[in-house]
Amino acid sequence: MTPTETVAPDYGLDLVVPGRHLPAGAGIAWIGEGWRLFTRAKLMWVIAVVMLFILMVAMNLLQGLGTVAFQVLNPVIVAGFTVACRNLETGGDFELEHLFAGFRLHFVRLLTVGVAFIVASGVLLLLFGLAFGFTALEAFMGGDAEKMAAAAGESPLPMILGVLVCIALTLPLVAATWFAPSLIALNGMGVAEAMKASFFGCFGSFIAFTLYGLAMIVLLVLAMIPIGLGMLVWMPLLIASNYAAYRAIFTTGRSAAAAPGGMVG
Q1: Does the N-terminal or the C-terminal CB of the chain have fewer CB atoms within 10 Å?
Q2: β partners of residue 253
Q3: Quick one: 47 exposed, middle or buried, by C-beta within 10 A (0-12, 13-18, 19+)?
Q4: Residues 6 or more apart whose Cβ sits within 8 Å of residue 238
Q5: Helix (H, G, I), strand (E, B) or coil at 143
Q6: CB of 79 within 8 A of CB of 106?
Q7: Considering only CA atoms, which of 40, 95, 106 is closest in space to residue 255?
Q8: DSSP one-letter code for 253
C-alpha cells in the first residue's frame, strides 16, 4: 500500500448474500426506520438535500452532458449518504464530510456502476429509437403525449407495447444498481458482485418493494402540495429508507435499534 492510499474503514457490517427474502410489511418498516434516521439530524439532512439540488441544477445547465455526468456520479453521491446513515445509526452525527466518502473510497467502482447504468439505458433508448423512430424517442423522453401519438400514427398499440417493454427492461437495470453503491461503500464489494447481489436482493423482496414504492409515491404527492417544500423531507426519507432496506436485506451488525423487517442489529 502506498502512502497516498486510503484504508477503507470497517463499518461493522457482516454480509448476508444473496440477501434475505422479507415479507410485504417490511417495506413500510423501512420508511419508519428512514424517518427515525431523518429525525436524528433534520437540519443536516435538509442542508445536504439543498446542496444536492444546487449541484443538480448547476450540472443541468450544461445541457445533456451535465445530466449524463450527474447520473454517472449518482452512485458516488449515494455512497456518501449511505456512510452518513451508518454513522447516524450507530449514534454518531451527520457531517458534511460524509457526503464525500464516495469520492475518497471505492470511487472507480462506484463510478463504474454509474457508467454501466448510463450505457445500458442508452442501449435501451437506442433500440426504442430504431424500432419506432427517433422523433418518437424524443417525444417519449420529453413526455410529450401529442408527439408520441403523432409518431404512432393510426395504430398506437405497437408504440404502447414498445414503451411497456422499455419499462419492463429498465426494472432489472434499476434493481441491479439500487443497492450497489451501499454494498460497495460499506462492504467493499466489487462492481459485478454488488450489482448481482442488488438485483437478487430487490426481486427477492419484490412484494415488500412494491408496497414500499406505492407508499413513497403517496408521500411524494403529499410532499408536492406545499409548493414542493415537502421534498426537503421526502428526499431524505427516500435515501434513509433505502439504507434501512439495504440493512434489512443484506447485513447484520451493530445498530441503535432494530424492528421487524427493519435494520438488523
Answers
A1: N
A2: 13
A3: middle
A4: 34, 216
A5: coil
A6: yes
A7: 40
A8: E
How much is the pTM? 0.85
- How far lies 134's CA from each of 44, 138, 152, 154, in Å? 43, 6, 12, 18
Residue 222 amino acid letter: L
Return all residues near 94 (Cβ < 8 A) that are at least 6 apart. 40, 41, 44, 45, 48, 84, 87, 88
Alpha helix segments (H runs only) across 61-179:
64-89, 101-104, 107-132, 134-142, 145-152, 157-178
Q: pLDDT tens-digit profile of 156-194?
A: 676 677 778 788 888 999 999 999 999 999 999 999 999
Please report how the helices 231-250 and 26-39 are oriented relative to each other, as an axis angle in degrees rounded to 10.
120
The letter for the amino acid at 107 is F
Overall average pLDDT of the 146-156 stretch = 62
pLDDT value at position 264? 53
DSSP string, 149-165: HHHHTT--HHHHHHHHH
Distance between CA 103 and CA 76 in Å, rounded?
Answer: 6
**Torsional class of 23: left (φ above 0), alpha (ψ -120 to 50), beta (otherwise):** beta
Please tell me the distance from the alpha carbon of residue 244 to that of residue 37, in angstroms, as a whole number: 9
| 39-57 tens-digit pLDDT | 999 999 999 999 999 999 8
Residue 61 CB coordination number (10 Å): 7
